[in-house]
Amino acid sequence: MTIQIYELCGANTDLLFSPHCWKARMAVAHKGLPWQAVPVPFTGVATVEGGESRRVPVMRDGDTVIEESYAIAQYLEATYPDAPSLFNGKGGEALSIHFINWAQTAIHPEVAKLAMLDIYKSLAPKDQEFFRTGREKMLGCTLEEFDAKHPKNGDSLGKALVSLELTLKNQKFIGGESPLFADYAAFGALQWLRICSGKDYLVKDTAVAAWFDSLLDMYDGMARKGIVAA
Ligand SMILES: N[C@@H](CCC(=O)N[C@@H](CS)C(=O)NCC(=O)O)C(=O)O
Q: Is the dihedral of CA 177, 27, 112, 96 positive or negative?
């Protein structure tokens, strides 16, 4: 049976940009399972699967519904143990929590600085209003004021990626020879930036850029095929 992943979308419902949804999607692809995306706009999230969750991703696998990207990865690992592992054991599972937290605290704020307005512009009018209200309350200023404070040269993102660069100089993936869920935690954040900005902020010829490219090519180029903002 085809797994369904409810994913956040833009005005163009093929623009699927959420970092957390990308983590779930890469995890399902890693397991080699058939899946389909169910696009959901911001204003539709609260009604997904009868309003069970206020966040996406939400995944349906037959009769089972799971919310939250890490819970989805854990479910997939437990349910499909013969498919390639997302964690390589309990230690890897524990370490991926570090990379989830690191991506959220080190990379996500940089994506916000670079692409807050791009995210806003990619949404349908109803969702723009929802997004603006929620984010401006959180930021304590308008989206435009926030955007104007931050240069768009990628230097600050580069600094946030220094530890990943050092790691990937010596190994192909965070997981070693092949990716694990920890890789997808970092990848999801950078794919969010790539899709919403339509720009390539990663410095060419770096280990991070090579790693990101190889993940875009994986699983039949799934992550490269999706549309990005113009
Ligand atoms: N820890 C959750 C975070 C999920 C999350 O924050 N999802 C965002 C999309 S990236 C969302 O659904 N936001 C809805 C909203 O802001 O109303 C996960 O990893 O799944």
A: negative
- Mutating to test ligand 1, I would choose from 38, 56, 128, 138 the residue with most ligand atoms within 8 A of its C-beta, which is 56
126: CA distance to ligand 1 center in Å?
Answer: 18
3-state secondary structure of 201: coil
Instruction: State yes or no: pLDDT of 230 exceeds 90.
Output: no
Helices 19-30 and 181-197, axial angle in degrees (round to 10): 130
Average pLDDT, the chain: 97
Judge contact between 103 and 22, C-beta under 8 A: no
Instruction: Tell me the whole-structure pTM to 2 decimals.
Output: 0.97
Whether ligand 1 lies within 6 angstroms of the CB of 135 is answered as no
Q: Which CATH number fits domain 90-219: 1.20.1050.10, 3.40.190.10, 1.10.1670.10, 3.40.50.720?
A: 1.20.1050.10
Mean pLDDT of 76-96: 97
Would you say the CB of residue 37 lies under 6 angstroms from ligand 1?
A: no
| pLDDT, tens digit (0-9, with 9 covering 90-100), for 145-164 | 999 999 999 999 999 999 99
Residue 140: the pLDDT is: 98
Q: How far apart are the CA of 84 and the centre of ligand 1, in A? A: 26
Minimal-distance CA residue to ligand 1 atom 12: 55
- What CATH topology corresponds to 3-79? Glutaredoxin (3.40.30)
